[in-house]
Write a structure and sequence with these properties.
The protein is of the alpha/beta class. It has a domain at 4-8 and 130-299: Leucine-rich repeat, LRR (right-handed beta-alpha superhelix) (Alpha-Beta Horseshoe). The chain has 7 helices and 10 strands. It has an 8-stranded mixed beta sheet, with helices on one face. α2 packs antiparallel against α3 (103-114). It starts with a helix and ends in a 55-residue tail after the last helix. This is LRC43 protein. It comes from Drymodes brunneopygia. InterPro entries: Leu-rich_rpt, LRR_dom_sf. Keywords: Leucine-rich repeat, Repeat. Residues 47-76 are annotated as: Disordered.
Length: 347
């Protein structure tokens, strides 16, 4: 799927919300005389559909009506919602959810049993508060996300997203995790950012300064508590800190893996510049450390704008020995073979 919406539709098909024991309709399970109960090993059923059960097909209730509950009387020959739920919960059932399923998996499948009509149309989007789409090849954060009017957490780790139009993000978002994507610019994300966002994860992307720092201020993220910018290409430590100081609620910051983290006074300068910070690069800031670096924020001249890296090569294997060519006599008509090598370092 190329978009978040397409990935979500594929996820719904995988859940089988319209298949037994979920969805609307009637199902008669022939259990060969074995009772359906908690902890009972269930034989594989022989299922045969029958005309719709009135107790399970009330898909056109009035808007104010309550969904069918477990306490409602079930006509003879029909399964109760409680029995159908047991098929999802009993670990011996062929329809049981896997132990490592997500809370959203369990929620949607159980809602599809108790009140399947709620998952028709836009109802399924109202039930989702946390959406996690990991490593699915998603490239587009599309406008379809606006249908998730109750969404609080959006996790899109390991995809191929390069642009994040903030106008396509639900305003209810509190967590936005975009780690391991291809985001190279924050301008689109900051056009209309979710006002209640508390965590922004942009680690392992393609952000490079100094043009990005201007988007990391209180004007865009008034409630931000946690910010992950690790393993990008940010270089301007002074410029970044000048913007981060406006984030009054910031308590967790991850910057490791950026070139700016190579400066000798990197940690001390950040600790003293952001007095409300509790965690820096996943390391707790103790009062003793803060006291040790006290005053460093007032000495920006100690921040070096460059770094020198010395690389020593101890041994190289698999290359011709140059001493063998030095044995040729001067003026010899023998062939002269020249080897050249290119070594590339990535930081």
């Amino acid at each position: 799927p190329s978009s978040v919406s397409a990935a979500f539709q594929e996820y719904l098909r995988h859940l089988g919300l319209q298949e037994f024991p979920c969805g609307l309709g009637s199902w008669v399970g022939i259990w060969e005389g074995t009772a359906v109960g908690r902890g009972t090993r269930l034989p594989l059923p022989l299922l045969s559909p029958c005309p719709q059960n009135k107790s399970r097909s009330n898909a056109h209730r009035s808007p104010g009506a309550e969904p069918a509950g477990l306490e409602e009387a079930v006509p003879p020959g029909e399964e109760s919602p409680e029995a159908l739920l047991e098929l999802l919960r009993d670990r011996h059932s062929p329809w049981a959810l896997s132990p490592d399923c997500s809370p959203l998996d369990r929620l949607l499948r159980e809602v599809a049993v108790l009140a399947p009509e709620l998952l028709h149309g836009s109802g399924v989007f109202q039930a989702v508060r946390s959406l996690r789409i990991l490593d699915r090849g998603v490239e587009e954060v599309d406008e379809g996300l606006l249908r998730f009017q109750q969404l609080e957490e959006l996790v899109l780790i390991g995809n191929h997203i390069s642009r994040v139009p903030s106008g396509h993000l639900p305003r209810t978002l509190r967590v936005l995790e975009l780690c391991c994507n291809a985001v190279c610019d924050l301008q689109d994300l900051c056009a209309q950012p979710p006002p209640e966002l508390q965590h922004l994860g942009l680690g392992y992307n393609r952000l490079c300064g100094p043009s990005q720092e201007k988007h990391l201020t209180l004007d865009f993220w008034p409630n931000l508590v946690s910010l992950d910018l690790s393993f990008n290409s940010l270089t301007d430590l002074l410029g970044l800190v000048s913007q981060l100081t406006t984030l009054q609620n910031l308590r967790i910051l991850v910057l490791q893996g950026n070139p700016l983290a190579l400066t000798p006074t990197y940690r001390g300068f950040l600790v003293d510049s952001l007095p409300k910070l509790s965690l820096l690069d996943d390391i707790y800031i103790w009062p003793e450390e803060r006291q040790h670096f006290c005053g460093l924020a007032r000495q920006p001249e100690l921040i070096m704008s460059g770094a020198r890296v010395v690389v020593s090569i101890g041994e190289m294997k698999g290359l011709p020995n140059p001493e063998a060519f030095q044995q040729l006599e001067v003026g010899s008509e023998g062939p002269v073979i020249t080897y050249s090598y290119c070594v590339t370092y990535e930081f």
